[in-house]
Amino acid sequence: MEDEEVIARIQRDLDEDVFEGRYDAESKKKFVFISILIAVSLFTMLISITLGAVDIPLIDVINVFMHPILPQVFAEPSMDYYNEFIFRGRMPRVFMVALTGFSLGLAGMIMQGLLRNPLVSPFTLGVSTAASFGAALSIMFGPILFGAVVNLKYNVLGVNFYVDDLLQVLFAFLMALASIGIILLMTRGKDISRSTVILSGVVISYLFQAGIMACKYFSDEDELREITMWIMGSFTGSTWGGVLILVPIVVICCIALISTSMDINALAAGDDVASSLGVDVTKLRRDGLVISTMVTAACLSFTGVIGFIGLMAPHICRMIIGNDARYLSVCSGLMGIAILSLSDLFCRLIIRPGELPVGIVLYIIGGMFFVWMVGNRRWSKRL
What we know:
Distance between the termini: 52 Å
Low-confidence stretches: 14-19
Structural class: mainly alpha
Shape: globular
Mean pLDDT: 81
Oligomer: single chain
Strand content: under 5%
């Protein structure tokens, strides 16, 4: 009897060691993947500074950043205008791409977890279209409602802040909030089917698309061009003022979203299980969708429609590290930076010195990814 107890204890210890070893290996794999994504994101951001309509040698880029700090070690850049070109032209764009990519990737992952639907994203739920309608309203009616105030700018610490940027953020957020409000009403008090959620997002997109078309029809030539270019999605108008407006919104919203990771893990087992574990499912779903909508609308109000990042980034990361929201949330944001940075760089180089709107490329890439995901036998079972 004692021998059997000893054998059972040894077997139990071996099982625990195997489990702990597997857990440590999986955790190490996830941290390695996060480190790789950080390195890839930083590399793509650096390449985005060096390449464009005018290429800047990498050594000059390094000198621009390091010469003011260590003038004895690093020489001045070979061209005087490189400083102005980098700090006022490309740096705001790089930061805008990073903020937008991280926000959309994270928001897509959170929305998928909250609604337990792998096809959900800010784009498929109609949030992007609603934000577009809000921005179009701001472009058309901002000068009418607020007059010359729209054209005012304020200089704070050498950075210009434009009133029309703030109005676009406000209008885009209000319209995006209206779209997600419909989803919240539909999911309140019942476990709605996946197909209904997707179809409701399509219907919402059509409704706000009708509003966009009406704005385009009644707008003048300048407004029509601005609305059309905005809908295509581009980072050409990135400024430090826009970046500084986005930074606090993105930081606060992303921290709030990442902090819900444990609750989303519980929600993956079902609403009843999550409730039994002490999760307020209604509040979690409402707050998570509203915060995701807010950060998405804030970014899109400056960049235009950027589609499919919130769909692609979480799925790519999920294939590699699994469904643990604690790691998946951060990885999805970093993957969003990498995808959007590479797409924006491609758009700047493909027809230079001209530039292709990044929304066009993402529609193509995202559409192909969506078709692959639906056609893939492994992933189609989850849809």
